# Entry
Amino acid sequence: MNSFTEENYLKAIFKLSSPDTDGVSTNSIAEELQTKASSVTDMIKKLSDKKLVKYKKYQGVSLTKKGKIIAISIVRNHRLWEVFLVEKLNFKWDEVHDLAEDLEHINSEKMTERLDEFLEFPKYDPHGDPIPDKNGNVYNHKDVTLADLKQNEKGIVVGVKEHSKSYLNYLESINLVLGAEIKVDDIIDFDRSMSASVNGKKLVNVSHQASKNLIIKKL
Amino acid sequence: MNSFTEENYLKAIFKLSSPDTDGVSTNSIAEELQTKASSVTDMIKKLSDKKLVKYKKYQGVSLTKKGKIIAISIVRNHRLWEVFLVEKLNFKWDEVHDLAEDLEHINSEKMTERLDEFLEFPKYDPHGDPIPDKNGNVYNHKDVTLADLKQNEKGIVVGVKEHSKSYLNYLESINLVLGAEIKVDDIIDFDRSMSASVNGKKLVNVSHQASKNLIIKKL
DNA sequence: ATTTATTTTTAGACTAATCTAAAATTATTT
DNA sequence: AAATAATTTTAGATTAGTCTAAAAATAAAT
Ligand SMILES: [Mn+2]
Ligand SMILES: [Mn+2]
Ligand SMILES: [Mn+2]
Ligand SMILES: [Mn+2]
# Structure
């Protein structure tokens, strides 16, 4: 079928695609996959031959229907495995991404559906990312971050936009985990940092860098 | 670390090694891995450079301590994942091998140990093969097969030597699954086929081809 | 509208793993 | 012990994926 490498390219293109812009740039894919633009061009040609992407020289790429289906099924796999690792094997949310990067490429529709069932059809992964259903429908969060809240506004933490271990560890240390209620007490004009209270109780200080990566559902 | 391919070679050499004979032949590895002898020679050299096998030209190979540890950990992984697929995801014993071939290469000691714990430290996989413990100790079954039983002797099915879907399916259809009690009623001299009863009840006919691949604990 | 900068593609080389065909070695027969 | 057969290794090619450096195309600045 498709190699791990091809699958990673499809996933990257999917991640970088957005409804408004039409083509994903070679450089952005190279950046995402930590590789060189020339390598990306080569692979794009290959995926284009396989009808998994639409490609016109110098004009960027986009996924075909076929390519998108594959990309989404990989994302589905990735997120289901992350749930498994956290819920069943007691991993922490900052430990599961790399393992899921490998597990996601084991392609078995049967295994995926059984896993989904075993996990009782979770809607979100440990980072709050939505798990595509078996028909490939994904329902993304509205993109409101803590940084968008104004003074005295409240919200619930529903996800993160940044998945690094250091960020996730930090969030956990100040109890800003999924489901936490946060209220903005004050915003410092100078650096846009916030002082906020979590679950009504404590007072924490959060940099703009941190607040803009925390996805919030407004209350 | 080591590539999937290297790991598969180590596993093959481990499987083909036996306490009595000292070197595994190039051809037998090629046969096991469905590849050509020349490819095997190339890979052996590479593994030798990495000190994972001992190799002298034309004299066959054997695993070093380092190589053996890796091979056993892959086998451990393989068999634990097979248990997971059968016990937790309700796969049948004939459906899990190929998936485990992929899952076994995801190397995370932490995941393996957590999985082992989650599965409540199983001793055997769905085919009766022993699961190496975390220190690499493997306790193999004594190699008695149904074909070794004489008339009127009884035994318990504890494993299979052949893992093909067709064989496993066939065994299941005549209730010769792990734990079944079998009694040899009659042996036909001509083709060494047997008529036998399973769990005291039924009467089945088993070819020599089938009986010699069924591992038995004598009663 | 040119010039300059940035992005993207091509050309050519490299590594891992594989193969076929030929050569070298070891094993088996006569 | 020589001849033949079987096994194993080498030589040389191939494919996937990657890289650097140079060329081509597009975008931005003057
Ligand atoms: Mn992830
Ligand atoms: Mn995630
Ligand atoms: Mn197996
Ligand atoms: Mn097994």
Observations:
- The longest helix of chain B spans residues 65-87.
- Residues 3, 5, 35-36, 38-39, 42-43, 46, 57-58 of chain B lie near DNA strand C (CB under 10 Å from a C1').
- Residues A 78, 82, 97, 100, 163 surround manganese (II) ion (ligand 1) (CB under 6 Å).
